[in-house]
């Protein structure tokens, strides 16, 4: 009897242990059975979370503070995608790095959701920027109504001299939109000289003679008057002074200074026609103020001095190609005192297309549907859940769209001015006009001439607000607002979820409603 009782207890204990073990294994299996979804950047992450609900583990590659355009996937990222069942991204125009990532991944079962599929892209080439002329003395010009003479030409200059000229019109007009052009000889095309927007011409002689001319445009941006070409003769008398700017070719006379220069104000990327505004910061106070800035297209090219950049501020209008830039400070003997590391200025026109699809609440619904279909393909058993979740979220997006329509459809003023050209899809959806002040930095105070240019744009469009992305409303923004008689406000492009939104536990729909509220200051 005793042995029977003991056997019963032992059997019961074994059964209980087995059941507990089975229960634990079932919990572990349930957790491991969750669909593994890797997303590229914030909007894709939230859309995927909304559709997947609790049925998937959704992870994000590009976190706050990183640039989705120029992100570099780590080995850990590649490993995560190798183990994932679904990978979600928007487009190669937005995430340039996706193609190389997917070429690296060895995961034949991976379901790839490219959410831009089926969405018509917006062509933003040639629009959205402050006026940008590309006049080179070609045909189809209006007959000039006045004559311009160029004053101040010396009989010759030396390499490194600053050429200071003035264009004078033989009559008084209200136009003040000037351009200057140079060419090496009469056989060459005229090329626009950047950062020369007034009647004064300040240009550093670079070693070879050239021709220069001035052109004045009217308020419709047609040529009003032009000068005859004048020849600028560079004559170094056959000698090469070691102090006369051989740094133009990257050769500097070092004398032991360990001072370093930091370049601030660099944006993650620029568009063609943007004005790059940078400042060189020296780690100590010195009396020297002889600054030079140099650019090169690639590491294989020689450094070239940029004319008209003689201070610690650098303002340069981009021409369509990425380049490197660095700053050098010279002492009173014109020896290099300190220099910066080279920084890369990335020109990214998104192949003439706006990649910010998710900022249109209607197209965002299409992206949600692409994600829904990808999750169903990877996990057919979850179809009902994914369809239900996608439908619910799309109803929120549709309500958001209808709110935008109701708020903006009867507005008479339909222009809004932005720091960065990111709202093309939103503007197209609601028949608005986006005007971008390209390259305006919230870290670096622009020059008086740059502020004047922005002021003209504000006056031309009669806009009360300049919009900055991601809450970057700094003291510099306030300075620009004060000088141009405008206010500043935030528009979220949602390439990342900003710290401000995270602190308030706000997501995509909340941020888009904040955008609508902000837009109504201009669109009314």
Task: Describe what you observe in this structure.
The protein has helices spanning 2-32, 42-52, 75-83, 98-104, 361-378, 383-408, 424-429, 448-461, 475-484, 499-503, 508-519; strands spanning 35-39, 56-60, 86-89, 111-114, 122-123, 146-151, 162-169, 177-183, 191-192, 200-204, 210-217, 223-227, 230-232, 260-264, 275-282, 290-296, 304-305, 313-317, 323-330, 336-340, 343-345, 353-354, 415-418, 433-436, 465-469, 487-491. By secondary structure, the protein is an alpha/beta fold. It contains 11 helices and 26 strands. The chain is globular, with a radius of gyration of 30 Å. Strands 6, 7, 8, 9, 10, 11, 12 and 13 form an 8-stranded mixed beta sheet that branches. Helix 2 crosses helix 5 (361-378). It starts with a helix and ends in a 5-residue tail after the last helix. The model is unreliable at 1-31, 124-144 and 239-257 (pLDDT under 50).
Rg:
30 Å
Provide the residue-averaged pLDDT. 81
Q: What would the principal axes of the Cα set say about the shape?
A: globular
Span between N and C termini?
A: 93 Å
Number of helices: 11
Number of strands: 26
The portion of residues assigned to helices is 25-40%
Query: Which strand-content bin applies to the residues?
Result: 15-25%
Structural class: alpha/beta
Tell me about the biggest sheet?
Answer: 8 strands, mixed
Q: Can you tell me the residue ranges where pLDDT is under 50 for at least 5 consecutive residues?
A: 1-31, 124-144, 239-257
């Amino acid at each position: 009897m005793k042995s029977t009782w003991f056997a019963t207890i032992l059997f019961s204990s074994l059964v209980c242990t087995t059941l507990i073990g089975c229960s634990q294994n079932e919990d572990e299996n349930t957790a491991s059975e969750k669909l593994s979804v890797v997303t590229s950047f914030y909007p894709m992450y939230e859309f995927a979370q909304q559709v997947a609900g609790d049925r998937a583990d959704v992870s994000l590659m590009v976190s706050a503070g990183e640039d989705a355009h120029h992100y570099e996937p780590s080995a850990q990222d590649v490993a995560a995608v190798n183990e994932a069942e679904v990978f979600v991204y928007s487009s190669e125009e937005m995430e340039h790095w996706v193609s190389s990532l997917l070429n690296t991944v060895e995961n034949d079962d991976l379901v790839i959701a490219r959410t831009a599929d089926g969405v018509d892209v917006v062509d933003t080439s040639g629009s959205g920027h402050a006026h940008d002329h590309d006049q080179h003395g070609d045909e189809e010009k209006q007959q000039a109504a006045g004559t311009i003479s160029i004053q101040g030409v010396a009989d010759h200059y030396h390499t490194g001299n600053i050429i200071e000229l003035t264009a004078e019109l033989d009559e008084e007009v209200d136009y003040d939109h000037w351009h200057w052009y140079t060419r090496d000889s009469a056989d060459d095309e005229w090329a626009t000289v950047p950062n020369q927007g007034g009647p004064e011409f300040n240009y550093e002689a670079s070693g070879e003679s050239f021709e220069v001319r001035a052109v004045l445009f009217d308020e419709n941006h047609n040529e009003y008057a032009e000068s005859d070409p004048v020849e600028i003769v560079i004559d170094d008398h056959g000698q090469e002074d070691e102090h006369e700017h051989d740094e133009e070719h990257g050769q500097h006379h070092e004398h032991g200074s360990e001072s370093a220069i930091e370049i601030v104000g660099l944006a993650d990327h620029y568009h063609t026609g943007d004005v790059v505004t940078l400042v060189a910061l020296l780690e100590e106070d010195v009396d020297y103020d002889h600054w030079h800035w140099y650019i090169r297209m690639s590491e294989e090219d020689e450094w070239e001095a940029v004319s008209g950049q003689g201070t610690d501020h650098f303002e340069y209008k981009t021409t369509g190609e990425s380049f490197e830039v660095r700053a050098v400070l010279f002492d009173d003997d014109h020896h290099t005192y300190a220099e910066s590391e080279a920084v890369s200025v990335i020109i990214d026109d998104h192949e003439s297309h706006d990649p910010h699809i998710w900022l249109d609440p209607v197209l965002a619904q299409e992206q949600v549907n692409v994600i829904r279909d990808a999750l169903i393909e990877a996990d057919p058993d979850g179809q009902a859940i994914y369809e239900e979740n996608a439908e619910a979220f799309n109803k929120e997006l549709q309500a958001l769209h209808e709110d935008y329509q109701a708020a903006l459809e009867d507005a008479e003023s339909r222009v809004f001015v932005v720091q960065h050209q990111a709202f093309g899809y939103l503007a197209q959806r609601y028949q608005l006009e986006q005007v971008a002040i390209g390259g305006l930095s919230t870290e670096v105070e622009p020059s008086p001439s740059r502020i004047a240019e922005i002021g003209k744009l504000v006056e031309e469009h009669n806009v009360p607000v300049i919009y900055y992305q991601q809450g970057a409303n700094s003291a510099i923004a306030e300075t620009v607002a004060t000088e141009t008689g405008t206010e500043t406000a935030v528009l979220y492009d949602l390439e990342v979820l900003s710290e401000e939104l995270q602190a308030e536990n706000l997501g995509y729909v909340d941020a888009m409603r904040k955008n609508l509220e902000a837009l109504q200051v201009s669109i009314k």
